[in-house]
Amino acid sequence: MKDLINKLYKNHSLIYKGLLFLCTSFLIVYLFPKSGKFRYNFEKGKPWQSENLYAPFDFAIKKTDEEIAFEKQNIIDNSVLYFDIDNSVESKVKNLYKEQFKKVFTDSLPVKSFQTVYNAGMDIIDELYSYGILNESYDYADTRIITLLADRTKKQDGFFGDLIKLDAVSPIISKVLESRELQAYKTNFTSLFFDIVEPNLTFDKSFTDKALEEELGKIAYTRGSIEKETLIISKGEVIEGDKYQVLKSLESEYESQVWTKSNYNWIIFAYTLLVALALLMLLLFLRKYRVEVFENNNKVTFIFFNVFLMVFMTTLVVNYNSEFVYVVPICILPLILKAFFDARLGMFTHVITVLLLGFIVPNSYEYTFLQIIAGIVTILTVSELYKRANLFISVGQITLIYIVAYFAFFLIHEGSIETIKWEMFKWFLLGGLATLFVQPLIYAYERIFGLVSDVSLLELSDTNSKLLKELSNKAPGTFHHSLNVANLAEASANEIHANAMLVRVGALYHDIGKMKNPTYFTENQSTGINPHDELSPKESARIIIDHVINGIEIAKKNNLPDRVIDFIRSHHGTNLVYYFYMKEKKEFEETGREPDLTDFSYPGPKPFSKETAILMMCDSIEAASKSLKEPTSTKIDAFVENIIDKQIEDGQFLNADITFKEIQKIKKVLKRKLANIYHLRIEYPE
């Protein structure tokens, strides 16, 4: 059990990466569409790019959304309106008419006209209640079909225009009286019927809605069918009209068939394999070419998180409206990774991410091509992200590439620009503007993941910062030495295309540990008194060596990034404090013993990058150059060669990713810089 625990502890970093790999794979697969994916990409109005397509199985042709919407609206417009009729109202009104008629007309009618006028009133009632009177106004067309229900039993059919509204009673009275030439009695009849007429029709909304739902449920969502092996479309044929609808029907049927055949688990398994394969390639790239990143779990987590974030954002946008897919600023990914790591890692991760997004977006080939080209432009154009103008210029170039590439694709598909979708350019512009969000995002990542970008390095390079001010006050000689080393290191880094900003910052802070005991270092001894005269060589060496450890402590206390602290750790590698070692050795010669090398050696580690190797060379050259007497070009050349060759001989650069060719270039830079410092002219042969 103990052996197992020890084994797990030793391999905890690999176990973590394995869990991260699995979690990221499953999260990305979870975002993918969970049905089979139609193997062809097509767009309405564009030519069919693949070979002739034959129906793989029998399937029905689905109606378009517009056709179904038209049918639904037609059914709604022509649906029957149901009204409940109260038969007792008409009888009640007639009885009231009989009672009220005598009171209204007895004194004013001659005997012979009584029956004529009375009958006219009964005809008015019959006219009003031939279909019925509505209890309230409804806004329906007069041509809408109606059905009158008495106790839920169909009594009569007609049109909505046949029904009488309460405000239409007076015109009915006028019409009947006019036909009998009794217009003189209109006022009396109007007054009479105003008191006795009651509505007898009530709109039965629930019954009407139920009947409408039944009719809508009868709509057929397909029209016709395609038999297996039938030619659907030929290569080069334009996809429009029925051809487009047949293809959409085949795509929908294909995906629904995969779903209904319970192949869900197989689809998930296939997606998982592909996603895992892509992420595995990313891990292998880190393992082979970016070992320092691979061994840092925090950095690997950061890279995987950004890949997942881009997939997540794109999925949200595609699910909302796939037309907005280019608004997602995918080019932020290579920008961020280049800011924190390097261009090659940024480009590789970008390509992997775009390949994964091909499973989600429509027109995946076009999308993949556009995004990869945009990613390449991003990597090539953004050289110094901390310069705001560079970012704006790069965003403009990225947007232009999107527009040009989309324009080219459209011409390939259409052969003209007459039907080009100009609104797509608007989405490209919005996507370009969204890329500017990279600056606050970098700041957030620095705080969350503890990383450092060129923007932060620029801030750290300010010599008016608190820590460098303190260094200049407590150890002015060391501060001046650091400035000189920074200039040499920056020039050397530029010569071999290393990170010049990083190496400059590392050089500025590499000796901050000397602030603890500044007078023990020769560059700060302005009084001519050397405190080492009172100490043994071993004690002096310990104080000199401790400036590395003290520097690390001061750096951590002041929250300097790990990338900067690495320069403090490694700028002396495992070199000897040679002066005191030789002094101790000379004292030991009398006893015949040899000094212990560990007492005079820096703890390391050795430089493990081009930048840290550059600092070691420049630090040694600058410090030792103070001892040059009557320097000439020849002396300087030999001086630089001897110091750097000694470091190579001691194996100080074995862990650094630096070549002999690059070291030779650095030597040339240092020789030229020292010659400028000492105001030497090149010696020409006679």
UniProtKB/TrEMBL annotation:
<keyword id="KW-0812">Transmembrane</keyword>
<dbReference type="Pfam" id="PF01966">
    <property type="entry name" value="HD"/>
</dbReference>
<dbReference type="InterPro" id="IPR006675">
    <property type="entry name" value="HDIG_dom"/>
</dbReference>
<dbReference type="Pfam" id="PF07698">
    <property type="entry name" value="7TM-7TMR_HD"/>
</dbReference>
<dbReference type="InterPro" id="IPR011624">
    <property type="entry name" value="Metal-dep_PHydrolase_7TM_extra"/>
</dbReference>
<feature type="transmembrane region" description="Helical">
    <location>
        <begin position="424"/>
        <end position="445"/>
    </location>
</feature>
<protein>
    <submittedName>
        <fullName>HDIG domain-containing protein</fullName>
    </submittedName>
</protein>
<dbReference type="InterPro" id="IPR052722">
    <property type="entry name" value="PgpH_phosphodiesterase"/>
</dbReference>
<dbReference type="InterPro" id="IPR011621">
    <property type="entry name" value="Metal-dep_PHydrolase_7TM_intra"/>
</dbReference>
<feature type="transmembrane region" description="Helical">
    <location>
        <begin position="14"/>
        <end position="32"/>
    </location>
</feature>
<keyword id="KW-0472">Membrane</keyword>
<dbReference type="InterPro" id="IPR006674">
    <property type="entry name" value="HD_domain"/>
</dbReference>
<feature type="domain" description="HD">
    <location>
        <begin position="478"/>
        <end position="624"/>
    </location>
</feature>
<dbReference type="InterPro" id="IPR003607">
    <property type="entry name" value="HD/PDEase_dom"/>
</dbReference>
<dbReference type="Pfam" id="PF07697">
    <property type="entry name" value="7TMR-HDED"/>
</dbReference>
<feature type="transmembrane region" description="Helical">
    <location>
        <begin position="324"/>
        <end position="340"/>
    </location>
</feature>
<feature type="transmembrane region" description="Helical">
    <location>
        <begin position="391"/>
        <end position="412"/>
    </location>
</feature>
<feature type="transmembrane region" description="Helical">
    <location>
        <begin position="266"/>
        <end position="286"/>
    </location>
</feature>
<keyword id="KW-1133">Transmembrane helix</keyword>
<feature type="transmembrane region" description="Helical">
    <location>
        <begin position="298"/>
        <end position="318"/>
    </location>
</feature>
